[in-house]
User: What shape does this take?
Amino acid sequence: MQPPLLPPDLRDWLDEDHLAWFVIEAIEEFELEPFYAAYRADGHGRAPQDPGMNAHAARLCLLRGRAVVPGTAGLA
Assistant: This one.
């Protein structure tokens, strides 16, 4: 049996003052409904990744000075 790749709760890995918590709180303030509105409620045509998660990842990359354009070396 393979062990889990991530902990059940990220608080087990990240300190209270980790930059990720700031990003999560900031993205929660964004209006993401326009991103979700393009997808059907029954799941067909759903985004390959959750738009909110993409916003979190992009913001964290920007704050760390990394490129956020798909296919660029800065995402590695």
